[in-house]
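hey team, just a heads up i'm posting the complex here instead of the shared drive bc the drive is being weird again. everything in one block, sequence lines first with there labels, then the predicted structure for the whole assembly after. its two chains so it's a bit long, scroll down
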Amino acid sequence: GQQVMQIPQYQHVQEGEDFTTYCNSSTTLSNIQWYKQRPGGHPVFLIQLVKSGEVKKQKRLTFQFGEAKKNSSLHITATQTTDVGTYFCAGRIRGGGSEKLVFGKGTKLTVNP
Amino acid sequence: KAGVTQTPRYLIKTRGQQVTLSCSPISGHRSVSWYQQTPGQGLQFLFEYFSETQRNKGNFPGRFSGRQFSNSRSEMNVSTLELGDSALYLCASSLGVTSGSGETQYFGPGTRLLVL
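-- predicted structure starts here --
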């Protein structure tokens, strides 16, 4: 079936180190969204990318959408303890007259102070 | 504005029973989507409702159904519960201006269902 693969599954970093999570789809995506879920919380929308090759920044976070609109990445510069949580990508896939948001399984980030 | 609310927050049921979960979207939002979250499968899309109509549907069996009311509140029903239905059920609301526009979705806190 249609899948969005996300790696790594877990990432542990020292505070101040950088962090990157990657998503790859078997199907071209209409757009891709990124969410953050803190432990015990619910997903919180971070950003949406729509255009091929798009790059967006939010302070220390940089989001990229691949040229083929099949992959995306989230990069955090100089991680802080407040960055702890699971980061999900979600690709919007259209097909068969319908569309759905397919989530990656997430990357769980822990930060050692 | 009040956020997305879901009731109940926790629920314990036994196999074979049925359950109804409720979601109240943010005021003014017309689209409600439902997701199932489990440690093994992650977040999986169940369905999306807009203006009382199911607009999109994921790959779940017919035991999972939903509806939306004229005030945009939504309910999700699972019949003949199985052990594997134990999960966190999340609903998310958005303005729903256009289908698939990728509007910001606001998630509720979820209903944690345990099937024994």
